[in-house]
Structure formats: C-alpha cells, structure tokens
Design brief:
With 286 residues, this protein is an all-alpha fold. It folds into two domains: 157 residues, UbiA prenyltransferase (Tetracycline Repressor, domain 2, Orthogonal Bundle); 129 residues, Four Helix Bundle (Hemerythrin (Met), subunit A) (Up-down Bundle), CATH 1.20.120. Helices cover 81% and strands 0% of the residues. The chain is built from 15 helices and no strands. Helix 3 packs antiparallel against helix 9, helix 9 runs antiparallel to helix 10 and helix 10 packs antiparallel against helix 15. The chain is flat and about 50 Å long. The chain starts with a helix and ends in a 6-residue tail after the last helix.
Length: 286
C-alpha cells in the first residue's frame, strides 16, 4: 500500500520540480545559503506538488484505465480506493502549504496555492478534458517551483522571478507535446483533448517551434540581469539552439515516432543541464 501511495505522488515529476525549485533558491541566495530555509522550501513545495499529483490521479482514474501508459497505476488497478487517495492528496496539500506559509514566508505560500489551484482545478478538473489549451495553461503551475525557490529568499516577485517563470513556462508545452505525439492514439482513445489529438501532429509540431525559440532569449535575459555568468549564457544558448533546431526538423521528419522520442529526451536533458549550469554559475561567478 505504501508503495502505491508513493506512486500516486508521481516521484519523477516531484524530483524534476524540486531540482528547479532548488535552482531558483540558489540563484537568489548567491551562494549564501540558509540551509534550514532551503529544507523547509523543498519539503513544503514537494508536499504541495505531491498533493496536486495525487488528486490528478484520483480525478483521471477512469481515463487512465484506457491508456497503456497509465492503466497499471494504483487507482485504475484497484489497489487503492479512491477515497483513500483523495484523503491522502488533501492531507499532503494541507501539510505542504502550512510549511510554505509558516516556515518559509506568506508570499511563497500564496504561490504554492496558485500553482496547486491551476494544476488541480483549472488543468485537471477543467481543461484536460475540454480544451487544447490544457498544456499551455497548465504550464503556469509547472513554472511555480523555481519562482517559489527564488521568492523563498527574496520575498518578492521581481525580474529574476519572472525570468525563471518564463523558462519553465516555455519549456513545458514542447516537452509534453512531444510525449503526446508519441501517445496520440492512446490520448484519443482515453478522451483527453490534447493538441495532437484535436489539431493534428503537424499543427502540434508547428506550435512547439515558438516555445523552443523563446527559451533562448529567456536564458539571455537571466544573464543580462546579472543573475548568472558566461557559463550559463553559453550553455543555455547552445542547448536551446540544439533543441530548437531539432524541433524545426520535425516538420520534415520521416519517422515522427523517432523524432518525438528524441525531442522528449532533449527537453528533459535541456532542463537538467541549464539548471545545473545556473546553480554552478549563479551571480556571474565565472
């Protein structure tokens, strides 16, 4: 049972977002780290994200049963009861937001509320089944972790917070659309209104291009405002350009499955590499 409850929290997503939150915290701290504050921020944000993921699993359990990728999750398989999952998700949310509000700062608590609300209410309950805007609008919640990390230190939403928000917001749609292209028939059968299901794969490939292109100036802005140095600048521009070029090549790709798989892997590695460079090169050390 414990293993299934952990699976409901989508640990892979939590790890990726916790790393982004850590990066935002580090950028704001400029190597002068309040380790206890960092710990509270990571615990609070991770619990809040886990809550949103559990409730997402609870709400989508009927559609998840129709997809090959998700049919073996605990709820579709009946290994956990829906009421237990819902109670677990609510408890995680209360605990996570309490930590953010009372042990970090109220601004971070409200950012946690915003991220949770967008993911659970707007994305999961509403747009995921009704609109192709689900991924783009849902990106607001996915962009919260680095902002939460940053604002845990700064206590305000300034240029640094907005640029970090832009990086994660722009990253998410092409990342998820490359997965959706690979699983388009599964999403269609399940009834999710994903962009490639409704508008087609070619339209989805076209729509991925501006997002990957805009990531390049977003990285440059982080350098221009003095938050990072030349190492980050070079890494973000080079890897952003590689991802952008590979995305454009999708328009002429003969093997869409292979192209989408490569694009998805590029997106994951892009995020990990630029945030690692951001942490190493915070405040223009190099």
């Amino acid at each position: 049972m414990l293993k299934d409850m952990i699976a409901l929290t989508k640990p892979g997503i939590i790890r990726l977002n916790a790393f982004a939150a850590f990066g935002g915290f580090w950028v704001a701290s400029k190597w002068e780290i309040d380790w206890l504050l960092l710990l509270y921020m990571l615990i609070g944000s991770s619990l809040t994200m886990a809550s949103a993921c559990v409730i997402n699993n609870y709400w989508d359990r009927d559609l998840d049963a129709r997809m090959e990728r998700t049919k073996n999750r605990p709820l579709p398989q009946g290994r956990l009861s829906p009421s237990v999952a819902l109670a677990f998700g609510v408890a995680l949310g209360i605990a996570g937001l309490a930590v953010l509000f009372f042990l970090v700062n109220p601004l971070v608590g409200w950012l946690g509320v915003l991220g949770w609300f967008v993911y659970v209410v707007i994305y999961t309950f509403w747009l995921k089944r009704t609109s192709v805007w689900n991924t783009s609008v849902g990106g607001i919640s996915g962009a919260m972790p680095p902002v939460i990390g940053y604002c845990a230190v700064e206590g305000q939403v300034d240029a640094g917070a907005w640029i970090l928000f832009a990086l994660l917001f722009l990253w998410q749609p092409p990342h998820f659309w490359s997965l959706a292209i690979r699983r388009v028939e599964e999403y269609r059968a399940a009834g999710f209104t994903m962009l490639p299901v409704v508008k087609g794969i070619k339209r989805t490939k076209l729509q991925m291009i501006p997002y990957t292109l805009l990531l390049i100036p977003a990285g440059i802005l982080l350098f221009a405002f003095g938050y990072v140095g030349y190492i980050f600048l070079v890494v973000s521009v080079v890897f952003g350009a590689v991802w952008f070029i590979q995305t454009v090549q999708g328009l002429k790709a003969e093997d869409t499955e292979k192209w989408a798989r490569t694009n998805f892997l590029l997106s994951v590695n892009y995020l990990m590499i630029i945030f690692l460079a951001m942490i190493i090169d915070t405040d223009g050390i190099f």
